[in-house]
């Protein structure tokens, strides 16, 4: 080999190596209205469009932070007939059916674990009733996704097909597991389509005639156009003791009613706080103690005409007639850690929306729904309408989640978020790459002693080379060092993050009533554990009823 050809070879190797260590750019999936059945006009559901199987079948999915596996419905879709009146509504609300029998790429396995699925799902109080049984009862196999990816290459991953009615309610679409051992994130990472197990979500703005916007799910980073102000970052905590099954618990120290004339009125009692579990897929803004929702309704001088049985199941219904002055202000969640999230009126009082028997989604603006539900026994939650005003990022590599006030915009500028001291640093000087390797990295200053001995700028070595053999030996050494240090890094535990402080005072709510009043009201599930509802004056006694796990302790114990 001549010196020249050695140099050419070395440069080529250098390119191959440096492109291998550049982070894959993050990518975004839209959260948008999708017509589920092509032969039914306006059969819309809002979610993420995906194609699955061969030939590809289009379905609508939602990200679920509290599941590790992904669950896709086929025609045995297990809709609750007391909520979903016919099969047509079920097909639309499930986001279309995937038919495994008609897909040539579906490979059936004995069960989900055999298919390579994650071996554990949660069983925390508050989570949908059947989650703990999904793993053992679902029909399982591997299947191919052909859209919703970071490249044109299809992605094969394990899926479960539910064989029991596990969700019992209204969060109906196919469930994409985004938990700490998410098979979706793992499959993308293994296929080289994702550099970090980080995802972010903003719901967009719904139902407004003037400024409706799609939301998005970003994988591998976040969208810096859609955030504003400072962030708060808290540890993800999936332990049963945390009481929050998505791992994302926040403390709200006040709830401000923002009247149009500029007056703000706080409705939480002094020195008290409410702890909420952030559950992005839930259909409302918040589920909170009934007394809080009543106080809100009284302070805004509105009179409800009942409870909604539509897509915003359990919200409070109001007549939207000209004489009936509905509240026109906003609501602000004051988070304990220094973040204010102001939810605009358009995402707080939304039109009545339902899917009718012909599968058509109807938006009825003669009624409005206050997207709040008063709970008694169950943990308080913040649902999808909260994420119209807040931007959420989940970082499984660091075991943290981060929130900002959202900046509602259709503009987009994705920022990669890498693991501490990972590729972004390794690739210094290699140039190129679409991702911004520095912006948004939680900590670029970490010295990673493993890396300091790895010569990565191959071009420089080649330029000063004394002989082909030396260069190639150096390249091979570098290659193995990089591989070794990457292997080490991926097995390293993230650093512990100290938990946020919060103050007590939950017990001071007027809702802290004598528990002897509690009586079982609606028993909805056939399965154990039995749900107990209906402690007056929450909404449950008069509403359509609940569907989550409840073991009889009060929301005060979410700590
Ligand atoms: C769509 O709706 C039509 C009309 O109700 C129905 O015949 C068909 O089975 C539905 N599903 C698909 C996938 O087209
Ligand atoms: C995560 O899931 C994979 C299978 O997808 C499994 O092999 C692995 O043991 C799981 N990790 C943990 C920590 O449970
Ligand atoms: C996912 O799997 C991990 C590892 O087995 C487990 O710790 C966690 O509780 C599971 N669920 C979620 C939502 O992360
Ligand atoms: C969050 O804010 C801190 C400073 O408060 C900053 O160091 C960090 O980079 C921010 N995180 C992200 C993801 O922007
Ligand atoms: C603003 O409106 C609220 C509710 O109608 C009222 O209680 C408050 O006094 C008003 N504030 C001012 C400054 O007018
Ligand atoms: C709301 O107003 C109703 C009717 O005036 C009253 O009975 C109820 O106690 C009030 N609730 C709260 C929490 O203020
Ligand atoms: C990284 O290491 C160098 C030399 O060991 C040191 O000078 C520098 O301060 C370190 N930087 C950080 C952020 O620790």
UniProtKB/TrEMBL annotation:
Domain of life: Eukaryota
Compositionally skewed regions (Basic and acidic residues) per UniProt: 511-527
InterPro entries tied to this protein: PEPTIDASE_A1, Peptidase_aspartic_dom_sf
Keywords in alphabetical order: Membrane, Signal, Transmembrane, Transmembrane helix
Naturally occurring in which organism (per UniProt): Triangularia verruculosa
Coiled-coil intervals: none
Signal peptide from the UniProt entry: 1-18
Region ranges (Disordered): 418-452, 487-559
Domain Peptidase A1 residues, every copy: 46-404
TM spans (from-to): 458-482
Biased composition annotated in UniProt, kind: Polar residues: 443-452, 548-559
UniProt protein name: Aspartic peptidase domain-containing protein
Gene3D superfamilies found in the cross-reference section: Acid Proteases
């Amino acid at each position: 080999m001549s010196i020249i050809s050695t140099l050419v070879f070395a440069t080529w190797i250098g390119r191959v190596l440096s492109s291998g260590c550049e982070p894959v750019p993050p990518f975004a999936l839209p959260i948008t209205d999708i017509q589920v059945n092509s032969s039914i006009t306006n059969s819309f559901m809002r979610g993420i469009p995906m194609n699955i199987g061969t030939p590809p079948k289009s379905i609508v999915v939602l990200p679920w932070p509290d599941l590790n596996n992904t669950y896709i419905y086929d025609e045995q879709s297990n809709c609750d007939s007391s909520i979903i009146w016919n099969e047509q509504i079920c097909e639309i609300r499930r986001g279309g059916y995937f038919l495994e029998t008609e897909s040539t790429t579906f490979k059936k396995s004995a069960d989900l674990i055999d298919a390579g699925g994650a071996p554990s799902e949660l069983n925390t109080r508050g989570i949908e009733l059947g989650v703990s049984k999904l793993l053992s009862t679902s029909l399982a196999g591997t299947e191919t996704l052909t859209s919703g990816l970071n490249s044109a290459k299809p992605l094969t991953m394990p899926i479960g097909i539910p064989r029991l009615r596990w969700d019992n309610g209204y969060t109906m679409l196919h469930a994409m597991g985004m938990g700490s051992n998410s098979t979706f994130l793992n499959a993308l990472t293994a296929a080289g389509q994702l550099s970090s197990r980080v995802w972010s979500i903003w719901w967009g703005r719904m139902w407004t005639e003037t400024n409706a916007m799609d939301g998005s799910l970003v994988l591998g980073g976040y969208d810096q156009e859609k955030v504003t102000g400072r962030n708060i970052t808290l540890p993800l905590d999936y332990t049963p003791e945390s009481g929050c099954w998505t791992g994302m618990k926040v403390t709200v120290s006040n709830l401000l009613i923002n009247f149009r004339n500029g007056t703000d009125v706080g409705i939480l009692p002094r020195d008290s706080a409410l702890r909420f579990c952030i559950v992005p897929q839930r259909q409302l803004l918040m589920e909170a103690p009934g007394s809080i929702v009543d106080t809100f309704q009284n302070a805004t001088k509105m009179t409800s005409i009942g409870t909604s049985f539509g897509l915003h199941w359990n919200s409070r219904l109001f007549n939207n007639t000209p004489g009936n002055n509905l509240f026109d202000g906003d609501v602000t969640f004051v988070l304990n850690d220094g973040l204010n999230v102001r939810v605009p009126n358009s995402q707080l009082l939304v039109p009545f929306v339902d899917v009718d028997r012909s599968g058509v989604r109807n938006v009825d603006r003669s009624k409005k729904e206050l997207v709040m539900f008063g709970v008694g026994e169950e943990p308080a939650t913040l649902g999808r309408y909260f994420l119209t005003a807040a931007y959420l990022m989940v970082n499984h590599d660091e075991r943290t989640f981060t929130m900002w006030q959202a900046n509602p915009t259709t503009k987009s500028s994705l920022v990669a978020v890498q693991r501490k001291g990972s590729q972004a640093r390794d690739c210094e000087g290699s140039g190129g790459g679409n991702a911004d390797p520095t912006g948004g990295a939680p900590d670029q200053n970490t010295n990673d002693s493993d890396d300091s001995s790895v010569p990565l700028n191959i071009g420089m070595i080649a330029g000063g080379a004394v002989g082909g053999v030396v260069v190639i030996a150096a390249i091979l050494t570098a290659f193995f060092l990089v591989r070794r240090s990457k292997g080490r890094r991926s097995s390293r535990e993230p650093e512990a993050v100290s938990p946020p402080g919060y103050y007590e005072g939950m017990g001071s709510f007027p809702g802290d009533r004598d528990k002897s009043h509690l009586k079982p009201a609606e028993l909805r599930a056939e399965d154990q554990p039995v749900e107990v509802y209906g402690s007056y004056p929450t909404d449950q006694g008069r509403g359509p009823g609940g569907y989550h796990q409840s073991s009889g302790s009060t929301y005060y114990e979410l700590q």
